[in-house]
Structures are given as structure tokens and as C-alpha cells.
Amino acid sequence: MTTHLQLIGIIIIVIIIMDFKMVFGIEKCKTLSIAKGKLEMRNFTTVDDDTVEAMKKDEIYRYLGHMQSKQIKHAQMKQNLGEGYLHRTKSILKTKLNAKDTIKAINTYATPVLTFSFGIVKWTPTDLENLQTKTRTLLTRYRFHHPRAAKERLLPRQMVGRNLVDITRLHDKQVKLLQTYFLNKRVTPPLHAAVVKADDRYTPLGLVCANGNELATGEEYNNVKREWS
């Protein structure tokens, strides 16, 4: 999403690139104009008479790996990320590694597919639990997890488990750390204060409603440990 001044800046860049005999790649560019919350179709013409077409209503673009247009496409992102995570997990299980290396590979190769979206994409507890259920199903299919074994058997090592990362716990921890960061920084830089003021449940952080005194407690996981051990 660009402003008129940014488009003028693009023209200047095009002129400089033309002086160096380089190709700018205008055919790959598109504009997205939003006025008062509504999408407007505005083509843009450069000094070289090339036309930058406007994005259509149903089109999306990627920014830092997230698909969006007027806003992030949360449902589509969750589906793509979930499929990518399960695909990597399945690929790891096909290698027939030993138990320790299999868990380590899932934690370091498959789980990061999801973690970069925590705090940006709106994951619900049900979404995360469904992913963990599908993970356990894959582990059972590839004879890594017994069908009748308790799901707590895959908990972190300090909880007497096999050390598989708990996706729900990881999500909650990352969201709380981001909340803590913004709430602590809002006192000095005006940018952080503006972000906290504007985020009224607009992102998964919900900074307007977040309370720094309620962040980062792991008592519910300690209860699971006591019950399991």
C-alpha cells in the first residue's frame, strides 16, 4: 500500500535506473489504494508511459510472508501454515530417525513454520489444539506414539515427557512476550505508545486490553506436570 508521495519516489528511482540502463520490472508492480476503508481502483502511469495496474478486489499480496490486501487474510494464512507444518512433520517421520533426533527435527524444522506468525495471525486455542491432534495422529501412524498413550507423553522433558514443543504454550508465551515489550516501551518512544493505543483487539496482542500484571504465568502447565508425575 503506497501513498502518492511514495509513487513519486518510485518515478525518481525509475529515472535513476534508466540512467544505469537497468530494468525496473514495472510489470511486477501493482498499486493498492484505500480511501476511507474502501478499495479504489487507481492505475498509475510512470514517466516512461508504463502503467502500474491497480490490484483487484479479490487479489492478495505477500508482505513479510503474510498474505494480505486491506488486512491480513487470517483464515488463508492459518490453512497454509498448518499444511506447511504438517508436511514438514510428515517428511521428518518418513526418515525413520531415532526418537531423540525425530523430536529435535520437528522442534527445529517444522514448528518454526508456525512460530513466526504468532502474535500476527489470529490463532485460536481450537486451531492450535487441532494442529497438535493432527501431529499426534501422524506420530501414531508412523509408529512413534502408541495409540493408547496419553497425550501428556509428548510434553517437554521437564514435565516427564518426550520433549515435543507444546504449540499452544509456545503461542501463549510469544504473545505475552510481545505484549510485555510494547507495554514496557510505550512510556518513552511515541511510536510504541501510538501502537498500544491503536491496537484495540486489532491484532492477537490486543494491547489496549492487555494487562502487564497478568502476563507470563505458567501455573497451568505446572498443574499438568503434577497430575502426570
Which tags fit this structure?
mainly alpha, 8 helices, extended, two-stranded antiparallel ribbon, 47% helix, 229 residues, 3 domains
Explain how this protein is built.
It is a single chain. The chain has 229 residues and is mainly alpha-helical. The protein has three domains: 4-59, no CATH class; 74-165; 175-214, no CATH class. Helices cover 47% and strands 7% of the residues. It has helices at 4-19, 74-94, 99-110, 112-115, 125-141, 167-185, 190-198, 219-228; strands spanning 33-35, 38-40, 44-45, 51-52, 61-63, 66-68. It has a two-stranded antiparallel ribbon. Strand 1 and strand 2 form a beta hairpin. Helix 2 (74-94) runs antiparallel to helix 3 (99-110). The model has no long low-confidence stretch (mean pLDDT 78).
